[in-house]
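Private note to self, pasted from the team thread so I don't lose it. Backbone tokens:
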């Protein structure tokens, strides 16, 4: 059974940090790009970051540049999103997703495997 399970969300004060994890089962990460997406209340889902199957190529949306870092451990079938200097506008449900590809994109269209999401709330 193919599963992507996100964890690590929670409530954090502005300026704080969280590390999200995306644990994959039912398929090998070796051939898949992984993306992180988020959806704030009343807004469309937006791409945050992605990493290709080898870890050599990553993309990050401008608004989280220099604050969020994506990484992967294929041996553990897990992808991480380190989020630093969090802001209230980072609040939302964060999803990881996968698709088979050489590179990666933060556009949601190509992704065909999705997790259920983990909630991140940045508030004082």
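Design output:
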């Amino acid at each position: 059974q193919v599963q992507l399970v996100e964890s690590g969300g929670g409530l954090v004060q502005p300026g704080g940090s969280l590390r999200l994890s995306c644990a994959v089962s039912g398929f090998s990460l070796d051939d898949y790009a992984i993306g992180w997406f988020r959806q704030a209340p009343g807004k469309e889902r937006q791409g945050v970051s992605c990493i290709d199957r080898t870890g050599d190529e990553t993309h990050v949306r401008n608004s989280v540049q220099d604050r969020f870092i994506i990484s992967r451990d294929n041996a553990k079938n897990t992808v991480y999103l380190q989020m630093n200097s969090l802001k209230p506008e980072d609040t939302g449900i964060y999803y990881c997703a996968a698709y088979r590809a050489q590179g990666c994109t933060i556009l949601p269209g190509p992704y065909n495997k999705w997790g259920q999401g983990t909630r991140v709330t940045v508030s004082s």
